[in-house]
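User: I'll paste a sequence; please echo it back and then give the predicted structure.

Assistant: Echoing your sequence first, then the prediction.
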Amino acid sequence: MYNTTVTLCASKIIQDVNSSQLSAIDIYEEFNSPGLPFLVQNFSVLWTMERDGEDSPTPEARIRISQDSQELGNFPLSVDFQDLKRTRSILMLGSLVIVLPTPLNVEFILDNNVDKTLRFPVSVTPTAVEPQAAS
């Protein structure tokens, strides 16, 4: 049976070429903007998973990003455990447009089953406009 071990979304996820260690920069917890729609400049997703010995080394995997019933993206991933028990995938988007003041959902789907969902609150806080003094 497959098991998701770590999921996170960040501005950037960097993998060291020599050690293969990962670093996540600006981990997302929520989104706040003065208005809608707004652009998230960089959006990266980390997904680590493990498998039992009888699981296929190449499961069907994808990440779906949505708000309410509006799908913002559906990204198939090439996952290959090879002979290992654990693997990881990184999805990097150049940008993501948030269109609604509703939670952003990131679903991790393995063999057509939603294995995990991350929900990020989205809030709109208009900036106050200072009245100009009459001259």
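The chain has no helices and twelve strands. The mean pLDDT is 94.
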